[in-house]
Specification:
Blueprint lengths: L1 H40 L15 E4 L2 E5 L16 E5 L2 E4 L5 H11 L6 E6 L2 E6 L20 H15 L3 E2 L3 H9 L24 H6 L39 E7 L21 E4 L15 E4 L8 E2 L3 E3 L2
Parallel strand pairs: 8-11
Antiparallel strand pairs: 1-4, 2-3, 4-12, 5-6, 7-12, 8-9, 9-10
């Protein structure tokens, strides 16, 4: 009888110990499952998102490439010299440009104000006038790329996204941008050399814009028709080899880098070239631009607080 009581006491104590350990074990198990689930979201083959309303991201595998334009490239400019080798580490790039809907969410959650000045094309000419990303001279919906966005605005968005997700979001470096845009190609554009094949892949200055905007009649545009006079909904055109849409055309995109007149002294490791230069680098060309700007190596520049109705951005982030 005494032994029976003793055994019951041992069993009771053992059961209590297990019950005490269970919450910690369950928590550890849930944590492990959450970590595993988080890892499965990131695929080298499929876009992923870090939250329900976050931009879709694409894994860009690391590698080396020649940054800048070839000596024989039509439309090349001196600021694309010298072509030089750059090594890129694996990172993630936004599949599309940040949309008006995504930027609206940022503004709702933060109360951020961009100001009310933007260079906008209206009645056939460009004017610096009252207006912002929500008040343009043409119609957009939430699937169009947000425009009239300054470099400062873009940085504010990436910082908010980083806080919201706990992930290291930022603007891409100029080298990362070109590497991602090329998609392993060496040609002037990721679809080839011809600017007139653009309308399958990009929203550019073409026959459509000349039919719609009077001032565009004097432009040297692309000899094709993409169906959009102004911005197009993101993802409307064929993606490049990495699965990225609108890397050329639609809107110019801000990068982290300060602008330099050439690549002498540029980093070779894919990092952003940042120093005391005021202007920031823009990449990709836009719905407004002629063939010489719509090239993988094409560059432009603007001061950080400038806003135009053909400038937007896309985000990048580091991967574990």
């Amino acid at each position: 009888m005494k032994n029976s009581k003793k055994y019951k006491l041992i069993i009771l104590l053992a059961t209590s110990a297990c019950l005490l350990k269970w919450p910690a074990q369950a928590s550890a198990l849930n944590s492990a499952n959450s970590t595993a689930a988080a890892k499965t979201k990131i695929s080298s083959k499929k876009p992923f998102r870090d939250c329900a309303d976050c931009p879709h991201m694409v894994v860009i595998p690391g590698g080396s490439f020649s940054m800048g334009s070839a000596a024989t490239e039509v439309g090349r400019r001196k600021d694309g010299d010298p072509a030089h080798p750059v090594k890129i580490s694996t990172f993630a790039m936004g599949k599309t440009e940040i949309t008006r809907g995504q930027f609206t969410q940022f503004v709702k959650e933060t109360g951020y104000k961009t100001g009310n000045k933007c260079w906008i094309i209206d009645h056939g000419k460009y004017e610096d006038r009252s207006g912002n990303w929500g008040m343009l001279g043409f119609k957009q919906d939430n699937n169009h790329p947000v425009v009239c966005i300054s470099w400062n605005d873009a940085i504010a968005y990436t910082k908010w996204l980083a806080r919201k997700t706990g992930k290291p979001y930022r603007l891409p470096s100029e080298a990362e941008w070109e590497y991602a845009a090329r998609g392993k190609t060496l040609t002037a554009r990721y679809w080839g050399e011809s600017p007139n094949a653009a309308c399958t892949y990009a929203n550019v200055a073409d026959k459509t814009i000349k039919e719609t905007i009077k001032v565009a009649n004097a432009w040297k545009g692309h000899n094709c028709k993409d169906g959009f006079a102004y911005t197009a909904p993101v993802g409307s055109f064929k993606a490049n080899a990495y699965g990225l849409n609108d890397m050329l055309g639609n809107v110019w995109e801000w990068t982290q880098d300060n602008y330099h007149k050439n690549y002498v002294g540029a980093p070779a490791d894919g990092s952003a070239w940042q120093d005391k230069e005021e202007k920031r680098v823009l990449r990709g060309g836009s719905w407004y631009d002629a063939p010489r700007f719509v090239r993988s190596a094409g560059r432009d520049k603007a001061v950080p607080d400038s806003r135009y109705d053909n400038i937007g951005f896309r985000v990048a982030r580091m991967l574990p």
